[in-house]
Structure formats: C-alpha cells, structure tokens
Amino acid sequence: MFGWLSARSTSLCRRAPRAVVSRRIRQITPHALINMLPGLGSVLYLHANSNTAVPDALPQGLLIAQRSFTPLLDAHWLVAVSVVTDDGPREWCECVDRTGHTRARWHLLPDTDYLAWDALTAPCTGMPAPIDTQPLRPDHASVVNFRLREFAGMQILDQDLVAPLSPLGDRIAARIARAESALLQS
Known about the structure:
Order of helices and strands: HEHEEEEEHEEHE
Helix content: 10-25%
Radius of gyration: 18 Å
CATH class: Alpha Beta
CATH architecture: 3-Layer(aba) Sandwich
Largest sheet: 9 strands, mixed
C-alpha cells in the first residue's frame, strides 16, 4: 500500500502549488551586521570553504577571530528568506557582497532568539534586489553563538561557547546541513 503511494505520489501531487519563497532585502554595513549577530543566540552558520580571499577593503575597527567569519566583513546586502518546505517552515539570512555573491548564510533554529531575529530582518523590504544574487554553495555548517568583544579599540567577532541545542534544534540543524550537502561541524 505505502509502496504504491510513494511511487505515485509525484503524479498525484502535480497540481499542488510549489513552495513560495519570500525574499526581503536591505542594504547593510558590516558594522551594523556584526553588532546585531551576538543577540541571535544559536544559529546554523553555513559558509563556503574558508580559503576564500579576505576582502581588499576591510571595515575600520572590525576584526574576526575565525576565518570562517570572513564573509561577514564583506557584507553589503542582507537578504531575509522564508519558505515552507516538506520539513516545515524555514527562515534564513544571506550575507551578499557588492558583486552579488552570497558569501554566508545563517538559519533560524528553535533555540534562536526570535526577537533579535525580527530586529535583524524587520528593516528588510520586499523590493527587488538591485543586483542578481549568486547562490552560496556551502561546504561547512556549524551551530554558532556569535560574540562581540572589544580589544584595543577594535571590535572582534568571535564564537561564544554554544549552549546545548534542544533535541528539536539539533535535528533541524542536521537536516538543513544534510539538505545543503554541508559537513556539520561540532
């Protein structure tokens, strides 16, 4: 019975509407982005290989403690994305550089601070992006709690100790990483 249904479910569901993706965008500076990230709590952070080049013009007064955070220094656009998938609703933010390349992405988890998420994404509008964004092909994923500290007049973006995720948050992070074909690092 179930074998028949799974083999024919594609033909039965052809009339079902495809997932509607909602994209909202805002222009953002690396300073504004980095100041808001620590309030989020636990998020799933996805990025491409950390061997990517460091931008030529680094923002004044900002440093990163981990090379995987380099894409955040090149932020020019923030794209907030929402979609309902087979696994349920998903929300994430994309960090896009001046040339339209998506450099990093972080996903909302059940353990994320929803008020901080709303504060980060609320200024995003439904206007079309002035540039065509190129998708991110992540190969690394990790659950991150961003931390901002000051040292010698510089702000340093670092990773705080990750509080244990709820069982649901842990399963969702693993599913997203698997769907993105990214290695989930602990």
